[in-house]
Specification:
globular; about 0% strand; about 400 residues
Length: about 400
């Protein structure tokens, strides 16, 4: 709705205000006249009309939002180049990933305004505090104002320079939905499905980009396990516990084909490498039978292209499976001292698992308690609580 309204308003903040006004109008109109047959279309049409009203009141508009619009009258009649990006939401993602903004500001602003991810969940994805993330979004808006960056859909020739930021946005959108950082449910299907849709549109738009293929492969291969990630009672099942016979074979086949296509280009990046790791999990007959040495080698390559502490932590898990928990413990202990991961509950959770496998139950219990202090998702909390009970009994 914000995306459709922004096309009329030419301004993201104005679009957000108009959408909020539409919801308020709905409270009165729907109570009086009943809920319309298509409530979503009603809200969008109302928000667009509000945007047109704002644009007509040029003086009011310019006093409130002098930052993004170049000519109100022109914006009313001009339509963006829909041929460049044939999807409302993806068009807005490309627009918000403006190269004048720093990469983190591009991604945070887009996830917040376009994708509807909460500030708290974005902050967890960036491993920063919520106030820090909120300040970054505010600074990005102020920079847009100061630089008078116009809201304008980029031309086709401008898309490649924005692609990396767009891929980060879509990947973070997916990961936020795959394991919700907070709340009662493990998965937010709306975010997962939106990320898959955006990636498919992106691949149709830029079919020769190997990283787009890699990202779609990664999402498909990961999402193929969705139905098996919780049991009938909604309890989280880790990868080793999932029923592989129920995994979505069509998604796995499509994902494997995309991985092969991405590697054949000779321009392999972080998403294709992650997809290759996901592919090894997908084809293994069991968790223990996974080709862990090959997974470790792929993580080594991934770290060269993307030296992230989160990647290093995932590599440590693979090392523990390939060479035993003792071989990975030093790496995890070192990552536990990395300030960037201070609030990341997976560090103490993985450390606890290694200690449990080594029979160091008391230390494992302390680590599980540390993880429980940081986790905000109820399904993950329940799993960690159960593991703590196991080691406490042991």
């Amino acid at each position: 709705m914000v995306a459709a309204t922004a096309r009329v308003a030419g301004d993201l903040d104005v679009a957000e205000e108009c959408v909020q006004d539409a919801y308020l109008a709905a409270l009165d109109a729907w109570a009086r006249d009943g809920v319309p047959h298509k409530p979503g279309a009603w809200l969008t049409a109302t928000a667009k009309r509000r945007a047109l009203d704002v644009l007509r009141r040029e003086k009011v508009f310019r006093s409130k939002m002098p930052l993004l619009v170049e000519s109100a009258e022109e914006e009313v009649v001009e339509e963006p180049d829909e041929d460049a990006v044939p999807d409302d939401r993806l068009r807005l993602v490309f627009t918000c990933c403006h190269p004048a903004l720093a990469r983190e500001a591009q991604v945070a602003l887009t996830l917040r305004l376009v994708c509807g991810v909460s500030t708290g969940d974005i902050a967890r994805a960036f491993l920063v505090s919520e106030p820090t993330l909120a300040a970054r979004v505010t600074r990005a808006k102020k920079k847009i104002a100061a630089a008078r960056i116009p809201y304008r859909v980029p031309e086709a020739s401008e898309l490649p320079e924005r692609l990396d930021a767009v891929l980060i946005v879509v990947h973070l959108l997916y990961t936020t939905g795959h394991t919700a950082p907070s709340g009662a449910d493990l998965v937010r299907a709306d975010l997962v499905d939106r990320a898959l849709h955006l990636t498919r549109v992106l691949l149709a738009l830029m079919p020769d980009e190997p990283e787009v293929r890699g990202l779609l492969a990664l999402l498909l291969l990961t999402d193929a396990r969705r139905a098996t990630r919780t049991d009938a009672e909604g309890r989280l099942l880790v990868l080793a516990e999932q029923d592989r016979s129920v995994w979505d074979r069509a998604a796995i086949q499509e994902g494997k084909g995309l991985v092969v296509g991405a590697f054949r280009t000779g321009r392999v990046g972080r998403y294709a490498l992650q997809a290759a790791i996901a592919s090894l999990h997908a084809v293994a007959s069991s968790y223990a039978a996974t080709d862990w040495p090959q997974v470790v080698r792929l993580y080594d390559e991934l770290l060269k292209r993307w030296p992230s502490p989160v990647v290093a932590l995932n590599r440590a898990v693979a090392v523990s499976m390939a060479h035993g928990p003792e071989a990975a413990l030093d790496d995890v202990e070192a990552l536990a001292r990395d300030d960037r991961l201070a609030g990341y509950h997976y560090v103490p959770a993985i450390r606890a698992d290694l200690l449990r496998r080594l029979g160091r139950q008391r230390e494992a219990a302390d680590a599980y308690r540390a993880a429980l202090d940081l986790v905000d998702n109820d399904a993950e909390r329940e799993l960690l609580t159960a593991r703590l009970a196991e080691v406490a009994l042991g």
